[in-house]
Amino acid sequence: MAEVAVMRGPFRGVSTFFYRRSTFYLLLLLVPPLLWLGTVYLGTLFALLTQSIYSIDEFTAQIVRKPTLATYKQLFTQPANLDIVLRTVSMAVCVTIVAATIAFPIANYMVRYASSRAKAVFYVAILVPMWVSYLVKVYAWRLILAKEGILSWFFNVIGAQGLLDAILETPGVGGPSLASSYLGMFIVFVYMWLPYMILPIAAALERVPASLLQASADLGAKPGTTFRTVIFPLAMPGLAAGSIFTFSLTLGDYIIPSIVGAPGYFIGMMVYQQQGTAGNIPLAAAFSVVPIVLIAIYLMFVKRLGAFDAL
After folding, report:
1. Residues contacting 75, CB < 8 A, separation 6+
2. Can you give the pTM of this predicted structure?
3. What's the pLDDT tens digit per position in 173-184?
4. CB 71: neighbour CB atoms within 10 A?
5. Which tens digit of pLDDT belongs to each residue from 14-73?
6. Which residues contact residue 62 at a Cβ distance below 8 angstroms, ignoring those fewer than 6 apart?
7. Domain ranges of the chain
8. What are 102-128's pLDDT values in tens digits?
9. What b-and-e string marks burial along 250-277, b requiring 16 or more CB atoms within 10 Å of the CB?
10. Yes or no: is domain 82-309 CATH 1.10.260.40?
């Protein structure tokens, strides 16, 4: 017993020291994560921003380490670069809108009408695909959307091959096949990010009290009116939270546009090419700043909708 008391003595003294100095103890606990955040995350982000204000010598292909806005001027004045930004933002907006349109009815049915067993099946069906390899899913969709793939075969079986051909001939949307079109890329984006939209909406709808719906019905409101005036406003934080994922993930993705879709660069692809093949680090950094700025603006907007309360 004496030995145990001796062993406990120093540890008890240290414990008492930190107990009486709770602020110092809290700071000590925060030092490792703050160092990681400050050096690895913020440090690399600062290095990225620094690289974007440099330029590259067109003759020697060497980075000129003098502050300049020439790279940003090149980014926003050259039609090809501006087209890449607009194409990426347009795709991100379309994916977010369609994912929300599909996700809301699914989440609403899960929360309001599905039994406990059916709700569990829904959650499993949503979560299991997220555990499958990202590349496996993308290449699987490339095979599905190929000219001789399952989807083309299905259109042919139901006698709608002419409709598919008309879609593929649409300028700016179609291509030789769905796997080589912006429409096919859009389908893959929606599929990949749809779970990230369903889950926050379902979480927001779970917090809507059933008593509010009953009160709305007791006051004579029709189901459509109840949805517009009660359910949808209260589910807006979840919708905004899900849109953060779909919008930001589409902006930064470069794998899906590289494997599925029509020829045409997106921001992620351009960053990869400029820092790798072309060796133009300043232009790659400038392209990387665009999603950061857009997402920061978007976060400020959705914060007012209560998006962070549903994350």
Report:
1. 81, 82, 85, 283, 286, 287, 290
2. 0.82
3. 877 888 888 999
4. 23
5. 667 666 667 776 777 888 888 887 787 788 888 888 888 888 877 777 788 888 888 888
6. 56
7. 2-49, 82-309
8. 999 999 999 888 888 998 999 999 988
9. bbbbbebbeebbbeebbbbbbbbbbbee
10. no
Q: What is the largest distance, in Å, between two alpha-carbon atoms of the chain?
A: 90
CA-to-CA distance for 255 and 270, rounded, in angstroms? 12
| Backbone torsion region of residue 264, taken as left when φ is above 0, otherwise alpha when ψ lies between -120 and 50, otherwise beta | left
Q: Which tokens hold the place of 11?
A: 């540890």
Residue type (1 letter), 207: R
- What are the structure tokens assigned to 236, written together? 């807006």
Q: Which residues contact 233 (CB under 8 A, 6 or more apart)?
A: none
Burial class of residue 2 (count of CB atoms within 10 Å of its CB; 0-12, 13-18, 19+): exposed
Cβ 196 vs Cβ 249: under 8 Å = yes
State CA 173 to chain mean position distance.
22
Neighbours of 15 (CB within 10 A): 11
What are the angstrom distances between the C-alpha of 248 and each of 9, 126, 195?
53, 20, 14
